[in-house]
Structures are given as structure tokens and as C-alpha cells.
Description:
- It catalyses: UDP-N-acetyl-alpha-D-muramoyl-L-alanine + D-glutamate + ATP = UDP-N-acetyl-alpha-D-muramoyl-L-alanyl-D-glutamate + ADP + phosphate + H(+).
- Pfam families: Mur_ligase_C (PF02875), Mur_ligase_M (PF08245), MurD-like_N (PF21799).
- This is UDP-N-acetylmuramoylalanine--D-glutamate ligase.
- Belongs to the MurCDEF family.
- Helix content is 33%, strand content 22%.
- By secondary structure, it is an alpha/beta fold.
- The strands form 4 sheets. It has a 9-stranded mixed sheet with strand order 8-9-7-10-11-13-14-15-16, with helices on one face. The chain has a 6-stranded mixed sheet with strand order 17-18-22-19-20-21, with helices on both faces.
- The protein is globular, with a radius of gyration of 23 Å.
- The termini are far apart.
Amino acid sequence: MQTNNSTQTPNQPKSAMAGQGRVVILGAGESGVGAAKLAMQKGFDVFVSDYGVITDKYKAALEKLGVAFESEQHSEELILNAIEVIKSPGIPATAPIIEKLLAKGISVVSEIEFAKRYTTAKTICITGSNGKSTTSLLTYHILRNAGVNVGLAGNIGQSFAAQVADEEFDWYVLEISSFMLDDMFQFKADVAVLLNITPDHLDRYDYKLENYAASKMRIIQNQTSADVFIYCADDEESLKALKGVLPLAKTYPFSIVKKVDQGAYLQDDTIHIHTEPNNELTMSISDLALQGKHNIYNSMASGIVAKVLELRNDTIRESMGNFKNIEHRLEHVAKISGIDFINDSKATNVNSTWYALESMTTDVVLIMGGVDKGNDYNMLKDLVKSKVKAIVCLGKDNKRIHDAFEDDVEVIVNTFSAEEATQIAFHLAKRGDAVLLSPACASFDLFKNYEDRGNQFKAAVKEL
């Protein structure tokens, strides 16, 4: 039986720790500019290269730091002489420049890996195909309300590296994507949370779910018996990925279908969380700020983290009851003519849309579509049949959505802007219905990102 340490990549080149030599950063977004700031502070010769266009905001930040940079190209003579490269999570390992770096034996790591070397703060690392942003924000909310000196970073908020350069937190809540995990080697999570594993980003993993699952399991690499691992005991793929892996950390499962000895479970609409004898936290699910089955799981995971940190039950209950969810995740926009408009633009995969539909209690006009990442829509079919009266496609190529649902709904309409989709959805809905933007796809065909898509939808709703 292998231990969790088997997830490390062998022969990883020696990293840049001493603050001497040339560090190159690929990608000049939030993580890249933050990494540049920390690397400059630690005395490295820093160069930033972005194959795309660097936004004015980040150009100005790099100029203020005095960092040399280039835009819309990767100059090999300026990159292949690095002692270490910090790359954006969005750059795949198959990119030509990455392949050349690895062939030369140059260390390529994530911003998270790099930044962790320079802080003694402890980390709560949250990953999963769905719910990680909500769970990260809820965990951060609980800890901050309890007076913990805590930062929030990773796939959300400000750069981890920039905060390590500027702040002195005792704890960080880090939202960690599979792309980040792929470039993390020596990093260790003090508290690791795995929410679920469902098909996502399979184009980066040879279209094999087991490869993606193996990436997610890197969340427990390097953990010891002094650390904590929290996971969903109801998630089939997580359990499959855990077979043959022996976590060294103290484990706390959570479940809504069975009782667990230590961790969290649901019984008679009440959550029970216990991490030590004679100190159980109970809370009715009707008192949770986040409603819906998926949010019971998210609340359980955050609650276990809080109990592991020995926070007071009253504080945990209060925070879990007054939390406000993130923008673009099942966000109520408006009620117009008795029709609810809900912005779930952050649902960029099929499973997220499943969760959104599962939480709906009315008939739905569903706005979906965009860049299809090899989606399998079969898991949505039962919910679409029972809850969706019409589908409004929002994307350049909607053929796969038509093919998947033409036998399940009477109306499927193509649209090519948020304004057009919103107006048609409004006409298809009637009083008591909900118009739900939950795309199940990436946004890059028509929008800058999922935030832009959600903001354009909200603006269109306000114009009705």
C-alpha cells in the first residue's frame, strides 16, 4: 500500500530558495505579479513573460516594482537561463516553453509552492471540482469572525505571494485548483480539504478522469500525522482515488447519508460535527445561510475545519448562519413580474449546473452554453426533464446542447449575447418560474471570463 507521499514527482530540480539568481515568471496576472513582488523582495533577478496581452493594471504594478517584463511573446533567450520558473496555472505542461524548461532540468513551480517557502503561517487548503470557492470563503468568514489572524488566497482574492510579501498572517485559507496542485512538490497543507471529484478540465488530463483525480489527491502530499485531511465520504470518485493511498494525516469524513465516528454527518435535518469526544456542534440545516444539498456538504467541511482549530461552537454557528455567498454563485439578481433571475455564471462545468438545478424548487428557464470542455450532459437529463421548461443557449456553438436535450425540453433557443439570452428567457418564463444562468461551460467564446458573463447577465436583467 502506498502512502500519500507517492504523489510527489521524482527528480524535481532544486528550487530557488537563497534569494540569488534569475527567477522567471510566466503569466502576468494576479498570481504572476504577486510572485514577482515576493521574488524581488527576496533578492532575485526577476523577469516576467506573458504570451498574452498584459492588462494596464498589472503593467503598472510591474513598472512600480521595477520588474523587467515582456508581453505577447516568450523570448527563449530571456527565459531558459532561469534557475527557477514560476508559472501561471493556466499554462499547460504541454506548452512548448514549459517542455523546453523541463528538458533543461529547470524547476517549474506554482506561485503557491514558491510563496510557501517564505512564510511560517499554517495553511488550510481546499480543493474539489465544485464548491471550493464557497467553502473557502465560508471557512475564512468563520475564522475571521472568531478572531483568527487569517488571510485568503489561492484561486480566489489577492495573490498568496503578494500577501506573504506584505502581511503577517498566522493562517491562510487557500483555494487550490488541480492546475496549481500539478506544480506543487514540497508544499504541505496543514489542513487539507477534498470536497468532491467530478469530470472537469479533462482536456488537460488526456480526457482521463483518473488522471484528474490523481491531480486532486496531491492535496495530501507531504502531510504527516500532525496534519488533518477532511473529505466527503459520499463522493464516489474521492473514495475511488483514496483506494491504495494511506493518508498519514488525521482524517475527518463528512456525509449526509451515514453516521461517522469523527467528522460530520446529517441526521433528522441536523448537522452533527465532532472532532473530539464530548464536544459536538449541532445545527439545523434550516439555520444555515447556504441552502441546498451541495451547501450542506460545504458547510460541513468548513465546520470541521473550525472545530479542528478549536473555535467556539457559538461562533461557528453564528458565522454559518450569517454568511453571504460569493457573487456569480447562485446569486439572486432580481424578481421581475414574479420571475426570479439567478446568476450562477461561476458554474463552468456540468456538475456545478447539476447542483444549481438540484437546489431549484420552481420551474426553470435555463440559460446555458459556452466553451464545451468535453462535457457529458447525461447527468443533467433527469433534472432537466423534471425542472426545465426551456433552454436558452448562450454560446457560439450549441450543437452538443441541442443533441443532449432535444428530447427532454420543448424549446431550445440559440442566442449570442447576454442581453438577447435574458430577454428571450424572460418571455419564455411565467410568474413563479426562475430564469437561471448556469452555463456548464467556460465563457471565453463570448466573454472575458465568467465574471464578465455574470455581470452582463445582471446588467441585462436590470434593463428588462
